[in-house]
Design goal:
mainly alpha, 83% helix, 0% strand, globular
């Protein structure tokens, strides 16, 4: 995708976001929104700063997962793609359309298989760390003197999420992309040469997802540290708003 086309897509997505935001504000009560903002007062500034910082660090962590020899994208390209995809995820169900948009905006700047692998790994590690944080939440509840039934439900939710994420990790380690292509092979229109091409790409994606920690441990450590920092920033954002 050329730079001019990239800019056009980015402008269209930004325009859609502005229109949606305006529609939400009009549909809600602008006066009520102003009242709530007045209640938050100065705490909105550090909360917003944490929100923006979390997004920027997430984009940086995602970039760490991409092999430099498979990418010509700069940091600002990852930032643009992340924020556009993040905005789309907020207004669409399933939070998957935004991931497709991220890949679309960086296509031509990052190798296709490397791009797919980085998106899979970024979402997997982010979900894994969120599950760990959810398990730690009941401990914070004890410190904050939260009612026992709230702690119990939080712990139960954390355990369920941990089991689901553990299952997802197992699937990824066994070759999630290859398994999906194997299932898709039951469709008639994917048989033959097209199916074989998909299998080859799926195998490359699975290999690259598993290769980051083994082949580039420094980048893997930086990505993990960045994603943990994002969770801390998200907690700080909520804390500022609750103040």
């Amino acid at each position: 995708m050329g730079r001019s086309r990239f800019n056009r897509v980015h402008a269209v997505v930004l325009g859609i976001g502005i229109v949606l935001l305006g529609g939400i504000i009009v549909r809600l009560d602008p006066a009520q929104i102003a009242t709530h903002l007045a209640q938050v007062r100065g705490w909105l500034v550090p909360a917003l700063a944490c929100y923006v910082a979390a997004g920027c660090v997430t984009a940086w962590s995602w970039q760490q997962m991409v092999r430099p020899d498979a990418s010509t994208a700069r940091r600002r390209d990852f930032l643009r793609a992340f924020w556009a995809g993040h905005a789309l995820n907020l207004v669409t169900p399933g939070a998957s359309a935004g991931e497709v948009l991220k890949g679309t905006l960086l296509r031509g700047r990052v190798d296709d298989d490397e791009l797919a692998a980085s998106l899979v790994l970024s979402n997997l590690l982010g979900t894994l760390l969120s599950a760990q944080l959810t398990l730690f939440a009941p401990l914070a509840g004890l410190w904050l003197d939260v009612p026992g039934h709230v702690i119990g439900w939080t712990l139960a939710a954390g355990l369920v999420l941990a089991v689901l994420v553990a299952g997802l990790v197992v699937l990824v380690r066994r070759g999630l992309a290859t398994g999906l292509v194997r299932l898709a092979g039951r469709l008639r229109f994917l048989r033959g040469r097209r199916l074989e091409e998909l299998r080859e790409h799926a195998q490359v994606i699975d290999d690259r997802v598993l290769a980051l920690r083994r082949d580039r441990p420094a980048e893997f450590a930086r990505a993990i540290a960045g994603l943990w920092a994002v969770r801390v920033l998200q907690v700080a954002e909520v804390w500022f708003l609750l103040r």
